Amino acid sequence: MLQTEFPFVLPMGYVDAEGTLHREGTMRLATAFDEIAPLKDPRVHGNPGVSPGDPARRVVTRLGSLDYISPKVIEGLFAADLACLEDLYRRINQNGHSLVRAQCPHCEHQFDLEVTRWGPGATP
Questions:
Q1: Paired residues of 22 in beta bridges
Q2: What's the predicted TM-score (pTM) here?
Q3: Which pLDDT tens digit goes with each residue over 90-100?
Q4: CA 21, CA 25: separation in Å to the nearest integer?
Q5: For residue 116, what are the CA distances in angstroms to 11, 12, 74, 86?
């Protein structure tokens, strides 16, 4: 059976207006719409001050005891937590691979290198 939801633990966590810390959550697999929709946002076109956003922001389905994960919640995360979510997004939507093209500085041979995030908040 295809796994479509993946648990995570944020390294720092989101602190809501009442001061409650939310660290555990769930991310679902992305759909084509999740990848395409930000590119169609008219606020983005021709305005360098507006970013289309990362698709990872669209697929968090649960964070602690919050009833709704709004864009403001994601924007309120610490940078380390957003990086954790972006890393998980890449891994689950690329079948566990985060490949980058690398080049040896000595012989200039090019090869694919898998980049993996380890440490606090990393999800296997």
A1: 14
A2: 0.67
A3: 888 886 555 56
A4: 12
A5: 16, 19, 22, 12
